[in-house]
Amino acid sequence: MNRYLKLVNFEFNRFVKIYVVLLAITLITQIIGVILKSREYVANANEAIYQEQLSTSEFLSQYGTMSFDTIVRSVWFLGPIALCAGAVAFYIFLIWYRDWFGKNTFIYRLLMLPTARLNVFLAKGTTILLVTLGFIGFQLIILPIETTILKWIVPKDFRVDMGVHEIIGAIPELHLIFPQSFIEFVLSYGAGMMVVFVLFTAILLERSFRWKGILMGVAYGVVALFIMLSPLLVQDFVVDGYFYISEMVLLEVLVGCIVIALSIWFSNYLLKRKIRV
Amino acid sequence: MIEVKELIKKFGRKKVLDGVSFTANKGEITCLIGINGVGKTTILNAIMALTPIHGGEILIDGKAIHKDSYEKITFIPDAITMLPQMRIADAMEFMADFYESWNQERATEMLRFFKLKETERISSLSKGNTAKVNLLLGLALDVDYVLMDEPFSGIDMFSREQIADVFTSHLIEDRGVIITTHEIHDIEHLIDKAILLDNGTVLKAFNTEDLRESEGKSVTDVMREVYQG
Q1: What are the pLDDT digits (tens) for B111-140?
Q2: Is the model's pLDDT at A10 over the cut of 80?
Q3: Closest CA to B11 of B65, B59, B64, B52
Q4: Given this model, what pLDDT does residue B53 score?
Q5: Residue of B41, B47, B67, B133 to mutate, interface with A, max A Cβ within 10 Å
Q6: Burial state string for A141-156 with b = 16 or more CB within 10 A and e = fewer than 16
Q7: Rounded CA gap, A215 and A206, in Å?
Q8: Lowest-pLDDT range, A199-213, A245-259, B147-161?
């Protein structure tokens, strides 16, 4: 346990520089977005009211009010989120491969630590989870700052204020990363960790068997997908809609747990018996 | 004692090791000798469970390797096993964090002996100094067995001499050492036991002292006989 926590700390610190840069990019880009979008709206309003002689209410009925919703849908806001999501996806692979490549082969050290090799696996998984949660937390912290900036720029009569909850609620696609309830949180992060563990297992297959391992990794991914789809297939083709939706959710959770357990068990086996430096 | 019994290792269909057996005792330096590609590094990797084997058995003090074994046996590969961005001090801290057998006093002593500075970054070290740090990270562990892969290859003369001095010091004494080399000259006088390898098998294994006394032959003489005869 102790060495597992040390490994988590160690792995996180290896990512921390890139992490800080990504957080800074997110903060700066989104704030620039808020400022530009708000000023654009105010400029439009000025032009309409002072040059085209529209009244405030005429302007509002033609152009609508300004709200944070407009900003959330812009590339200024979603761009950095996509960048961070992409960085996490990329790091799922890099977190392993960086130990094998380069002239300093750190994987020797990791595999020779006097601790179960599974701890290395779990520490890398935990790091991915922490990094993701950190991004989400950071986004939730900077949202109120951004809405405040909007309030500074756009006068009260021209805007509709939104709370953090409403802002996230405005874009359904974001529900996956900003869960609206605890159950949603457990489901989407559980599913996320399952995907990470399946990918880790595929990576370890490649690292153990190299070229053949790529095929085995893909095959493992297909098997995991099939297990995940099995309740749906049974529902549609075998029992013909026998289960309630809530029961289906439960079944999916169950098979999800099976896939996670299978991945951890298989990775443990690979790390102990098949891995190559 | 490290016992390697009938070790078989294949890369694809090619058998790299075909029934290799030998033992290495505590308090002795055992040297695996053979040309490049003969499987010396693979044997060390196999002992440390860093590569799967396809037959045979490896025992350390009578037991197969398990997680706690890494407090008793260590491996110094030919490349340094620390992150390049670390300073020497960070690397030592990492070792102290993870290994109960880490001996900081000994590490400090070796730093002084090798004239290395704690504040230096691993990525900025010369080849010779990198090898010294690598050696330090392994030898400062209070382990019974040390495996070293080609510790002298590609290093300048003075570094080689310094490293050779380590072999005759208390840093090595009482431990079991397995060392590989394709070039015997630097360490001929240091080794207790020689294992000559070729084509995945042990051609000859002998105690260097015994052979010197009974037949008056050096390791180089025996190598000439075995490889060229």
Answers
A1: 999 999 999 999 999 999 999 999 999 999
A2: yes
A3: B52
A4: 95
A5: B67
A6: eebeebbebbeebbee
A7: 8
A8: B147-161
Between the alpha carbon of residue A262 and those of residues A36, A194, A252, A258, the distances in Å are 49, 10, 15, 6
Report the gap between the CA of B95 and the closest CA in chain A (Å).
9
A6 close contact with B: CB closer than 8 A: yes
SS3 B135: helix
* Phi, psi for A152 (deg, rounded to 5): -65, -40
Q: Which of B49, B77, B122 is facing A105, going by the closest CB pair? A: B77
Does A217 score more than 90 pLDDT?
A: yes
pLDDT number for residue B43: 97
Q: Considering the entire predicted model, what is its pTM?
A: 0.93
pLDDT (0 to 100) of residue A104: 66
Chain B hits for A105, CB-CB cut-off 8 Å, are 77, 79, 81
User: In angstroms, what separates the C-alpha of B26 from chain A's closest C-alpha?
Assistant: 20
Task: Give residue B182's pLDDT.
Answer: 80
Q: How far apart are CA B111 and CA B159, in angstroms?
A: 13
What distance in Å separates the CA atoms of residue B22 and residue B192, rounded to the nearest whole number?
Answer: 14
Q: Which residue among A10, A108, A113 places its CB closest to the CB of B50?
A: A108
CA neighbor of B34 nearest in space, from B138, B149, B147: B149
Domain layout of chain A by residue ranges: 1-175, 179-277
- On whether any CB of chain B is under 8 Å from the CB of A208, the answer is yes
Question: With contact defined as beta carbons under 8 Å apart, do B228 and B202 qualify?
Answer: no
Residue A275 has φ and ψ, to the nearest 5°, of -70, 150
Kindly report the CATH class assigned to B2-228. alpha beta
Q: pLDDT (tens digit, 9 = 90+) per residue, A115-139?
A: 999 999 999 999 999 999 999 999 9
**Cβ–Cβ contact A1 with B under 8 A:** no
* Residue type present at position B34: G
Whole-Å CA distances, B125 to A14, A253, B122, B192: 21, 52, 5, 32
Q: Say which of A102, A106, A114 has its CB closest to residue B67.
A: A114
Which of A104, A110, A210 would best serve as a mutation to test chain B binding (most B beta carbons within 10 A)? A104
Is B122 within 8 Å of A104 when comparing Cβ atoms?
Answer: yes
Comparing alpha-carbon positions, the chain B residue that sits nearest to A103 is B79
* Spatial distance between the Cα atoms of A172 and A169, rounded to a whole number of angstroms: 6
DSSP A91-104: HHHHHHHHHHSSSS
**Rounded distance, CA B78 to CA B134, Å?**
8
Evaluate whether B81 touches A113 at the Cβ level (below 8 Å).
no
Residues B194/B205, Cβ–Cβ less than 8 Å? yes
